[in-house]
UniProtKB/TrEMBL annotation, chains A, B, C, D, E, F:
The protein's name: Carboxymuconolactone decarboxylase family protein
Domain Carboxymuconolactone decarboxylase-like, first and last residues per copy: 33-118
InterPro entries, per the entry: 4CMD/NDH-1_regulator (IPR052512), AhpD-like (IPR029032), CMD-like (IPR003779)
One term of GO molecular function: peroxiredoxin activity
PANTHER family: 4-CARBOXYMUCONOLACTONE DECARBOXYLASE FAMILY PROTEIN, GAMMA-CARBOXYMUCONOLACTONE DECARBOXYLASE
């Protein structure tokens, strides 16, 4: 069953964001491969594989939380990309970030909005190429 | 137009959570009525009146953020109630909270889950009466 | 000179808030008297005894920070009282708290405003008696 | 193997703090039993079952982190008790808390120290009885 | 009146920090112009236009809060510059930052102090030119 | 005795991490030498000179806290280096960081793990040279 959790997690991570996800796992391989394994098993094999919320709802919740926390800029960027991947519109993403000004203040919303600007520009660039 | 923002905000707040919203505004009336006014004008007249996200999406994002922040238990309870009001299911709410364990740790998820337990029990009690 | 720092700290703490300060020190006496001693020596003997800012400015900065942090409600209450003690007006205090909505969000401002409401009521009660 | 993780987690949780751990799991049973299950499987079956750190080191790290975060008072109390259970001395615990004043400020250290005072008193009371 | 809020906000922002403020608004224009508009309308047209605190007190409070939060380095730099602009002395700024070591720990004070060092050097450079 | 605290602090800082510590103090010399002095006197002359915890326990607690806080990346790097200096193994350090996923979420653990990867690589490089 462990194997199942890992395989299910890898599968789910691919649906969410295959490139960014793989990058994180690879960059952990020489310092803490187990941290990478837990992200796949617990993060994607357990939590993101649950029913009850769509992947779009899950990414919207994650973007809201990481914006509000303000301590996880690299992970926010991964999930901004993942949000687009699973079908959130750019408007849904920027509205979610904007709303966080109410709960976590304008700096939190600003820093996340600039991250969104960066990710959207990267996506545009890839699409042109 | 200021008047419009205020009236629009009052209207929107009623759709979201009329009792809890009114309680906050009333309890501010003798210490900082302007803080209450800004919550209505900016929070509900501006932000929650925007298009681009449904009220259900807005409450899901807010519940995610307040769970992750861990510093706003009273406001989390208001929005747990508001989430139910605008049509989020209990499962959507508990799944959102559960997912926050990944981003903000188990204590954040636990404290929000116990808040949900409390709010759901309150709602059950009112409904029985 | 250690003695000097301690005595200077005790003196400074008395100017800022003699009752609340003493309560904290007393309540630490059986668990960590050294934490109490460091608050007096470093907090009040060193920092609050520095020139460059008035005590009113120091308390305004502290109230702003504790409001924004949202994790130090008991200490916020001590400094709301201390702020009044050193001559900040109630308006200066509520304006400072209100402004924090911009930087730390409405929940942070709300929770601090309710703390101010509580402290102002306590002060009113003592003054009537 | 899932079964193994759960059983290993239950076993490990018992070593760390059987009563407090059981209370958390029980209180989640009617709102989110899966959150309880993940705490056992991932928290205790995976992480706390790893080699590389002693249980005393693990509890010392947890007490330091929860003190510094300042958003997890109920969980801090559980781990103050667990710290004593796995053999940390009261001095090791209060020294850890005290040191956090350097990294997270005096309010964080104060609030955790008062939690330690409460837990130590509870333990004393049980021992007398 | 909306127009009034916006115009009053632009005016107030100019008094506080015309260049940095304009940069933020411009950089938001292609991703979320409304976030820029709210900062002007609500941030500067509403809050910073209130009476009850001087602009110097408002910037001192903001510098204290952003230092303590530790999640808003870009906005802290804007307000360090704004603080100088509205007449805070460098000593008042560094004393405010230093004091935050007590409430948010040394890392928060250190990171803000290095930001102040950077901003003061930038200002010196402009003044020499 | 002040002199004693300073000298004792310098001595203790040397035991913990002579290069990194000196860098911080030097870089503060033209903006706030007193902040550097307090870090030596209070941080190292008072706290790190206390008995009750070994230097290894102190660094483990600090690494745990800075990982969980997520707002002090530069100071985390200093203490990752200091941890190695006082005899923590790389495994003890990565296990401590990994465990923080439980309490502060995966982004906190990830960002600290990448900091550890960087510091370990730096140390390897120096050792080869």
């Amino acid at each position: 069953m462990e194997q199942n959790r890992y395989e299910r997690g890898v599968q789910r991570l691919k649906e969410v964001d295959d490139i960014a996800g793989e990058n994180v796992i690879t960059s952990l391989s020489d310092i803490s491969p187990d941290l990478g394994r837990y992200i796949i098993e617990f993060g994607f094999g357990d939590i993101y594989s649950r029913s009850g919320l769509s992947l779009q709802q899950r990414e919207l919740a994650t973007i809201a939380a990481l914006t509000a926390m303000g301590t996880a800029q690299p992970q926010l960027k991964v999930h901004l990309h993942a949000g687009l991947n699973v079908g959130l519109s750019r408007t849904e993403i920027t509205e979610t970030i904007l709303q966080m000004a109410l709960y976590a203040g304008f700096p939190a919303a600003l820093n996340a909005m600039f991250a969104a600007k960066e990710i959207f520009a990267e996506v545009d660039k890839r699409e042109i190429v």
